[in-house]
Specification:
This protein has 70 residues and is an alpha+beta fold. The chain is built from 3 helices and 2 strands, in the order H-E-H-E-H. Strands 1-2 form a two-stranded antiparallel sheet. The radius of gyration is 18 Å and the shape is extended. The structure holds flavin mononucleotide.
Length: 70
C-alpha cells in the first residue's frame, strides 16, 4: 500500500471478499483450491468530498502500548 502511494495511487484493503467471494469468483478465474483472504482495491484517488472523510482513530500509543500497572 505504501508502494502504491509512492506511485501516486491509493488503495483500500477489503477482507470482506473472504466471506462474500462469489462476485469476485464470477469475474476472475480462481482455482477451487485457492482461498481468498483479502482484496486490495487500487486506483487514483478522486478529488471528491466523500474522500475527505476522516474517521476518529485511537492514537498509536493507545493501540501499540499496553498500560503499565503500578
Ligand atoms: C486487512 C484489512 C482488511 C479490511 N477489510 C475491510 C472490509 O472488508 N470492509 C471494510 O469496509 N473495511 C475494511 N477495512 C478497512 C478499510 O480498508 C479502511 O482501512 C477503512 O475504511 C479506514 O480507512 P483509512 O485506513 O484510510 O482511514 C480493512 C482494513 C484492513 C487493514
Amino acid at each position: 500500500m505504501l508502494a502504491a502511494v509512492e506511485e501516486g495511487l491509493g488503495s483500500c484493503p477489503q477482507a470482506a471478499i473472504a466471506t462474500w467471494a462469489s462476485p469476485i469468483k464470477k469475474h476472475f478465474d480462481i482455482e477451487e483450491d485457492y482461498k481468498l483472504l483479502c482484496g486490495l482495491s487500487i486506483g487514483y484517488p478522486a478529488e471528491h468530498k466523500v474522500n475527505t472523510y476522516q474517521p476518529a482513530k485511537r492514537s498509536v500509543e493507545n493501540v501499540m502500548f499496553a498500560p503499565t500497572s503500578k
